[in-house]
Design brief:
Blueprint: E1 2-3, E2 16-18, E3 26-31, H1 34-43, H2 45-48, E4 53-57, H3 83-95, H4 108-116, E5 124-128, H5 131-139, E6 148-154, H6 156-165, H7 167-171, H8 173-182, H9 188-199, E7 206-208, H10 216-220, E8 223-227, H11 235-243, E9 248-249, E10 251-257, H12 263-272, H13 277-280, H14 284-296
Parallel strand pairs: 3-10
Antiparallel strand pairs: 1-9, 2-3, 4-6, 5-8, 6-10, 7-8
C-alpha cells in the first residue's frame, strides 16, 4: 500500500506540480513534458517499482469502461439498468459458440476479457504493468483539444487489501443497501438477478489476469484488466464513494502538458526502447500501424 508521503520527494523536482490528496486516495500531478515522466519512472522507485498498474490516455477524461460510456452509437442506448452487463455477456457467450476456445463452463471474467480485445462493450479497462507502454498509448494518438495527455498510476494491490479489510462496506450489506438506492430496480426478476450478481465476487473492483487466453497482445503489453462494479460509472467515482477519506494513495493521475506536444520525439524515444506498434501488437495490425507511424515521424527508424 502506498503512503501519500511518497509524493513528498516530488516537491523538489522541476516542472512538477503536485495537487492535494483528494477523497478516495486520488492525487493529480502535472508535468511539463514526457521527459519529466520518464524522470519520475527512473528516479522515484517508491512509486514506480512494484506491483502497480498504468494506463495511458490521449486526453484527460474519467477512467470509464466502454459499457458505461453512454449513449452509444448505432442505436444502442446508454447503460441504464443492472441487467445490462448480464445480458451483454450472455449474448456474447451465445453468439460466440463454435468461434472461441472458451465454453459455457468458463468464468464470466474470461469471457469478458476475451470480448474486451474484440471490440465488445465491457465493464473492463485495459492496464499495463509497464509505465513505458502506458506512455506510448498516451502519445500515439494525434493531438486533441485536451490540454493534457494522461498516464494513470493505480495501486491495485492496495485497493485489493482495502477490499479484504472492508468486505461489508464493499460487497456486504452496506454495499447492497447503497446499490439498491442507486439502481433502477423495475421488477422481481431484476431484483433476483441483482442478488445473484452481488453474490459473485466479480461485482466488486478487481484486476483480472487474462493470460488464460494465450493472447499474444496482452502478454506483449504486460496487460491486466480491471473490472469495475456496475453501479459506479468510473474508477474515480468508485474510490470516492467506497474508500472515502484516506491517508493512502490509490490513484495518481499524471497529467502531461500537450501545449508544446513533443509527440514525435516521445514516440521516437519509445521506439528505440522497443516500445512500438510492432512489439505491442505482434500481428499484421501492429506491423501495418508501425509502418504508418514511420511515414509521419521523421527519423522513426533512426535513419
Amino acid at each position: 500500500m502506498a503512503d501519500v508521503k511518497v509524493l513528498e520527494s516530488l516537491n523538489d523536482r522541476e516542472n512538477v506540480s503536485i495537487g492535494e490528496l483528494m477523497t478516495g486516495g486520488i492525487c493529480n500531478v502535472e508535468l511539463s513534458s514526457w521527459k519529466d515522466f520518464m524522470g519520475l519512472v527512473l528516479d522515484e522507485c517508491d512509486l514506480f517499482v512494484g506491483n502497480y498498474g498504468y494506463r495511458g490516455q490521449t486526453k484527460d477524461q474519467p477512467l470509464k469502461p466502454s459499457l458505461y460510456r453512454g449513449p452509444f452509437g448505432s442505436g444502442m442506448k446508454a447503460f441504464e439498468t443492472i441487467l445490462e452487463p448480464e445480458i451483454q455477456v450472455n449474448n456474447f457467450i451465445n453468439s460466440s459458440k463454435g468461434l472461441a476456445e472458451l465454453t459455457d463452463g468458463d468464468s464470466k471474467d474470461l469471457w469478458w476479457s476475451l470480448g474486451q480485445h474484440h471490440q465488445l462493450k465491457t465493464p473492463l479497462l485495459d492496464w499495463t504493468l509497464n509505465p513505458a507502454v502506458a506512455l506510448f498509448f498516451a502519445f500515439v494518438g494525434e493531438k486533441t483539444d485536451s490540454s493534457h495527455r494522461c498516464v494513470y498510476w493505480l495501486d491495485y494491490r492496495g485497493i485489493k487489501t482495502f477490499i479484504q479489510n472492508n468486505l461489508d462496506k464493499v460487497v456486504g450489506s452496506k454495499f447492497f443497501d447503497n446499490v439498491m438506492k442507486k439502481s433502477k430496480i423495475k421488477s422481481n426478476q431484476e431484483n433476483k438477478v441483482f442478488k445473484v450478481s452481488l453474490s459473485d465476487e466479480g461485482m466488486h473492483f478487481k484486476f483480472i489476469d487474462p493470460y488464460d487466453h494465450n493472447n499474444k497482445k496482452i502478454i506483449a503489453q504486460s496487460g491486466r484488466l480491471a473490472l469495475l462494479p456496475f453501479v459506479y460509472p468510473s474508477i474515480e467515482s468508485y474510490l470516492n464513494e467506497v474508500v472515502e477519506q484516506t491517508a493512502e494513495l490509490y490513484l495518481l493521475k499524471i497529467k502531461i502538458s500537450s501545449e508544446s506536444d513533443d509527440r514525435d520525439e516521445c514516440l521516437r524515444f519509445l521506439n528505440h526502447m522497443n516500445v512500438n506498434y510492432k512489439t505491442l501488437f505482434p500481428d499484421i495490425y501492429g506491423s501495418a500501424n508501425h509502418c504508418n507511424l514511420a511515414l509521419s515521424i521523421k527519423g522513426y527508424y533512426g535513419i
